[in-house]
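Researcher: Let's try something more involved. This one mixes different molecule types, so please make sure each is placed in the same coordinate frame as the others.
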Amino acid sequence: MADGFHGAAQAKIAEIVHGLLDKRAGAVVVGPDQNLSDAGLTSLDMVGLMLAIEDAFEIEIPQRRMTPANFRTIAAIEKLVGSVALAA
Amino acid sequence: MPLDRRAQRLLDMLAATRGQAQAAQTPQDRRAALEALAQVADDAPGAGVSFEDVAADGPDGPVALRIYSPESASGVLPALVFFHGGGWVAGGYATHDGLCRRLCAAAGLRVIAADYRLAPEHRFPAALSDCLAATQWVAANAARLGVDPTRIAVGGDSVGGGLAVAVAQAARDAGGPAIALQLLICPILDVGRGGGSRAALGDGYFISQAAFARDLADYLPVGLAADDPRVSPLRAANFADLPPAIIHTAEFDPFRDEGEAYAEALRGAGVAATATRHAGMIHYFYAMARAIPYADTAAAQIGAQLRAALQSSLPLVGRDRPRSGQGGGV
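Model: All components are placed in one shared frame. Result:
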């Protein structure tokens, strides 16, 4: 994927993640490879995160891609978004 | 029809959180869990809808009400007094805000949500008594609320649907207030029911029968039978002279059969009743529009039915008929 997409997508995902984290743990900042549940996101937050990612990127993540591993970190989500967007 | 693709996906996602949900045993945890679900699974629709908070006088103290109104409409409008679901233990303005807004916009009427007392702190009959007081208060204060007293509907979803039917039955038996319509969305009307959809869909379809049994245990006081018509209004002896009913059920809802049975019971007693079964849908789908976009389609349909029923079927008791085109629209 192009670097432009890469940077913009990561920033957008990080913004969504931090929006959710703000409601839980306060102003925690997580890096792209940091585990999101360790940072304070609950399982239900993960559901919200999936739906928010879909809204933001106008994609529908297939059932089989909805795995915890694909939502573990910002970098993993970015990879997921890129591959779903490419496949569409 | 199979489960809706988005409903199936949501169920799978929620199943992945199950360890957490089972740990959510205290009433406070269950309330927080439903609010958190609403936060992630619903959206904030209803541009063109405003609200105002008021308090109704009840026999046991004030009952808080939230009145949603279409911004484009003014003057006298029909009203829906609405009782939320949540298993008598959870739910409130936050969990049903989206649904109330969607119905308000789609039907062009005032939706008056009642924040009734919850169990187990307040067992039966607290919730029913608050819902009845709210309905009586709206009827008595119709003029100053901008509500047409001949067009007051009662309605609710899930256990709120059961409360609405119990209110309609109580109002009939007491000779008032006049209720124009019942609107029931996935209502729970026969709490001790087994078999049928309760058995076939008892686990894995949003609300398990085990979770429902826990809610029921928190609501029923010692000595009250589960078939008492005030908690199981489908067990009432007589359905004659009740207001017409619009009933919506979901194909994959364990409570589907009792909603449909109520429609049949009403028709058997000469009361007009329609039951619409939403194919592929689950309990509570209507309040999770972000996760299940079909909820918006259903709300538009329910709103159109509500608008038509409250604008056409009743006498106009010397009041201005609401003009067509009022309401926020969707």
